Structures are given as C-alpha cells and as structure tokens.
Amino acid sequence: MESLSIFHFLLAGLAAYLLYQIYLGAKGSSDKVCKACGFVGAPDTAVRGSLWIEIVLWLCFIIPGLVYSLWRSNSRHDACRKCGSIEVIPADSPIGRKIVAESASAHGQLRK
Ligand SMILES: [Zn+2]
After folding, report:
1. Each residue of 31-76: pLDDT tens digit?
2. How many CA atoms lie less than 13 Å away from 70 in the CB half-sphere?
3. 85 in Cβ contact with 79 (< 8 Å)
C-alpha cells in the first residue's frame, strides 16, 4: 500500500502541473496581430476540450484523465482577444507589420 500512495501522490503532482500548464502557463506573450479584425495586442490563450470532462475523467479513470489533460495542454493556442479568431500572427513579422500599417491608415492615423 505504501507504493500505491506514493503513486497517487505523483499523479496529483502531475495533475497540478498539467493544470498549471493549461491555465497559467505562457501568459503575457508578445503582441500579436489578428488577421480577421486587425486587433493588435496580447492574445487570449484558448484550449480545446472542457474542464468538466477533464474533472470527470480524473475522478473516474486516472489514466484517461491524464491523457486528456496532456492533449488539452498540447492544444493550447493563441486567440484574438477581440473577435476570438485563432488567426493571430506575431506583430513583428512582415505580414503582421503590413496588417498594422493597413489598419492604421484605415483609422485615419496616416497623414497624407
Ligand atoms: Zn480578431
């Protein structure tokens, strides 16, 4: 029974680590440009799947819960804070700079 409790302790630690990766990791990434609406700024982080499925899987079956958490942490992606589009690109890339310039001129910030 001693080894079983250590196994459970390790699993709890792994679950905490995965939850940290999914919900708190990689915050404050650099500015991104949204290709859909032209929004420039720090993107939202979105993950696929559902927290409730994750909790149920962890409570009922440890291993599927672990696999599901791993899949979710791998499915993390940036999403536009304004329109929710996943087509966000780095603001300092050539295409990003072009979109920033176009949206600036569209808003009348470019003096002729
Ligand atoms: Zn957008």
Report:
1. 899 999 988 888 888 888 888 888 888 888 888 888 888 888 888 8
2. 8
3. yes
CA of 28 to the centre of ligand 1 (A): 18
Shortest CA distance to 90 belongs to which of 103, 82, 100? 100
Here the tokens at position 79 are: 């999403």
Residue 82 Cα to ligand 1 midpoint, Å, equals 5
Query: Do the Cβ atoms of 54 and 72 come closer than 8 Å?
Result: yes
CA of 86 to the centre of ligand 1 (A): 8
Domain boundaries, the chain: 2-106
- The reported pTM is 0.56
Low-confidence winner among 23-32, 82-91, 97-106 (lowest mean pLDDT): 23-32
Ligand 1 centroid–CA 35 distance in Å is: 7
> Which DSSP helix (H) or strand (E) runs through 44?
strand 44-46
Q: State the DSSP code for 93.
A: S
Amino acid in position 59: L
